[in-house]
Fold this sequence. Notes:
Blueprint: H1 3-132, H2 135-145, E1 148-152, E2 158-164, E3 171-175, H3 181-192
Antiparallel strand pairs: 1-2, 2-3
Amino acid sequence: MSTHEKLEDLLDEIDRGMEKLNATTIEKKAADGRIYAHDATEQLDARKKIMDDCLRDDEYELESLIQQEEELKQEFDAVVKSCTVLEKKIEKDNWKNKFSDTEREYEEMENEKKLLEKELEELNKTVEATNELDIEALGLGIYRGLGVQTMMKKDGTITGVQLTSDDQSRVYTYPMKGYSAQYLTKYVWKSISPPE
Length: 196
C-alpha cells in the first residue's frame, strides 16, 4: 500500500477514533448529566419536602393563630358585655342615690313646709288677736319696741311721751297737750331715727 493510502487509512482511523472519542465523551457527558439531573431531582425533592413541611407547619401555626384570635374575640366580647352590665348597674345605683337624695330633700322640704304652715297658723292667730286690739294699743306697742314709752293717767288717757336715747344715757319727756298728733309723730320718729 502506498503511503498515500496509508495516510488515508490513518486519517480514516483517526476520524473513527475521534468519532468514538466524541461518542464516548458525549455518552460520558450524558451519563454525568443524568447523574447530575438525578442528584438535582433528589435535592429538589428534598427541598420540596422541606418546603411542604414548613408550609404544613405554617398552616398549623396559622390555624392556631386564627383559633387564638377567635378565643380573644370571645374574651373581648365577654369583657365588653361585663363592662356594659357594670355601667348599667352603676347608672342604676346613681339613679337610686339621686332618688334617695331627692327623696331626702323632699322630706326636708315637707318638714320645712309643716314648720312654715305652723308658723303661718300661729301668725294668723296673732293677726286675728291683733285685729281685736285697739289700733292705739298696737301703735303704743310699736313705739315701746323702738324705745318710746307713753305716760298715762290712771283712767288710761295719755298725757305725754318719754324717749330714751340708744345708749340709755338720756331721757326726754314731751307733753301731749298743745301739739298736734301729726307734729308729735313726726318729732318722735325724728328722735328715734338714727342720724344720717
